[in-house]
């Protein structure tokens, strides 16, 4: 198996390369292709990165290769992690640019790689999309390539965060919690409390534990709770009190922390590259694992889940051929309402960005 990382010199691309090698996902005769751009800094730096990886992991290193044109990408798994990203403005403490603004910048780049993949690829590649806005990039690749082989990691990562935050609130390990977060990777996130299963807990114990951390809040309260928490956190960060902001963060409800956590990390001056790379490599391991697995991830739907026709995070069954079908997970009425509202908003955004 060969893997290509587009944007391999970026924060996330580098972390993904390191994790792939450390996980021994590739054998000595498999190839890890590091893809950069000829007119950028990566044109030179990727050769140095190869050398550094060989120095660090010589015994476990797959074959390393540098590609600087979209036409030269050759792999079984293509990880799209290139493009503009969000950072926090240290003066105004605003997220710059917004996830939505990224669409305009990252669109042209995604089209170039998607077109080259269609033209020069072998047709069996699986594309794992990391670049934001992940729904839009999934849509761009799916419009040009086999959509059943295009999977975005946003909902996968949100689900890992949701599991961790639920586990933290009820004092068990993340491995003991199964749960999904679907919808938009951003403000249209839909945490599926109805999907929470805690290993070793009976149904009634799980219900009691959820009630204890959720209080009387219902799904339709969720967007309001996130908005209020974000305003509070931003205010404290603007006053330069980052430690207090993290202390407040710890008191928020677990599902609210899923959305506020990455923003707070950015405001602190750090990035979310380690967790994102971890989620990406985890998803790749699941895809290549050879078994049908149910995960939450962004795909382009044509009515397969709740009759929705757009690219959005949903439960899907993945295997070595990509995503076979949507998984028919049952939701509460409130969760369904949130999901359908998010789908309408995402569809409108994608239509607008496509026309620009
Ligand atoms: N899906 C998620 O959960 C998630 C989480 C965090 C970040 N992201 C997204 O991942 C992307 C990368 O983030 P980052 O922090 O690594 O950014 P970064 O700025 O550190 O790296 C981006 C890389 O893309 C490269 N690049 C730009 N244009 C290119 C081209 N035409 N060909 C090849 N490479 C090119 C740049 O040279 C740079 O190395 C962003 O879009 C970001 O929003 C996604």
Biggest sheet strand order reads: 3-2-1-4-7-8
* Helical residue percent band: 40-55%
Cα gyration radius (Å): 20 Å
H and E order: EHEHEEEEHEHEHEEHHHHHEEEH
| CATH H-tier superfamily of the largest domain | Lactate dehydrogenase/glycoside hydrolase, family 4, C-terminal
Number of domains: 2
- Helical stretch tally: 11
Shape category: globular
Protein name: Malate dehydrogenase
GO molecular function: L-lactate dehydrogenase (NAD+) activity
Pfam families: Ldh_1_N
Keywords: NAD, Oxidoreductase
Note down, in words, how this protein is organized.
There is one protein chain. The protein starts with a strand and ends with a helix. A six-stranded parallel sheet has the order 3-2-1-4-7-8, with helices on both faces. A three-stranded antiparallel sheet has the order 11-12-13. It folds into two domains: 2-153, 3-Layer(aba) Sandwich (Rossmann fold), CATH 3.40.50; 154-356, L-2-Hydroxyisocaproate Dehydrogenase, Chain A, domain 2, CATH 3.90.110. The model has no long low-confidence stretch (mean pLDDT 94). It has helices spanning 11-22, 42-57, 101-120, 134-144, 154-170, 203-214, 222-238, 242-251, 254-267, 273-288, 333-355; strands at residues 3-6, 31-35, 63-67, 77-80, 87-88, 95-96, 126-129, 150-152, 177-183, 189-198, 293-300, 311-319, 322-326. It contains eleven helices and 13 strands. It has 356 residues and is of the alpha/beta class. The site of nicotinamide-adenine-dinucleotide has 32 residues, from helix 1, helix 3, helix 5 and helix 10.
């Amino acid at each position: 198996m060969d893997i290509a990382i587009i944007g391999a010199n970026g924060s996330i691309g580098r972390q993904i390369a390191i994790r792939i090698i450390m996980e021994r996902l590739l054998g000595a005769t498999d190839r890890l292709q590091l893809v950069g751009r000829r007119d950028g800094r990566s044109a030179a730096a990727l050769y140095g990165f190869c050398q550094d990886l060989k120095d660090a992991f010589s015994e476990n290193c797959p074959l390393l290769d540098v590609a600087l044109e979209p036409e030269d990408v050759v792999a079984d798994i293509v990880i799209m992690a290139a493009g503009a990203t969000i950072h926090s403005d240290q003066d105004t403490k605003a997220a710059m640019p917004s996830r939505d603004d990224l669409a305009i910048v990252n669109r042209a780049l995604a089209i170039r790689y998607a077109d080259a993949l269609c033209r020069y690829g072998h047709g069996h590649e699986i594309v794992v999309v990391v670049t934001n806005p992940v729904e839009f990039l999934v849509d761009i690749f799916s419009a040009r390539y086999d959509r059943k082989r295009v999977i975005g990691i946003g909902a996968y990562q949100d689900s890992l965060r949701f599991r961790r935050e639920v586990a933290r609130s009820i004092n068990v390990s993340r491995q003991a919690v199964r749960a999904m977060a679907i919808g938009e990777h951003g403000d249209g996130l839909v945490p599926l409390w109805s999907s929470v299963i805690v290993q070793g807990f009976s149904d009634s114990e799980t219900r009691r534990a959820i009630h204890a951390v959720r209080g009387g809040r219902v799904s339709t309260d969720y967007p309001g709770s996130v908005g209020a928490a974000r305003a509070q956190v931003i205010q404290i960060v603007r006053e330069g009190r980052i430690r207090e902001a993290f202390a407040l963060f710890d008191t928020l409800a677990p599902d609210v922390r899923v959305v506020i956590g990455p923003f707070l990390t950015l405001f602190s001056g750090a990035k979310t590259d380690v967790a994102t790379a971890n989620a990406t490599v985890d998803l790749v391991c699941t895809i290549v694992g050879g078994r049908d697995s149910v995960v939450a991830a962004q795909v382009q739907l044509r009515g397969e889940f709740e009759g929705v026709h757009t690219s959005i995070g949903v439960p899907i069954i993945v295997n070595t051929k990509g995503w076979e079908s949507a998984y028919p997970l049952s939701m509460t009425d409130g969760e369904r309402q949130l999901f359908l509202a998010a789908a309408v908003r995402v569809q409108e955004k994608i239509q607008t960005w496509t026309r620009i």
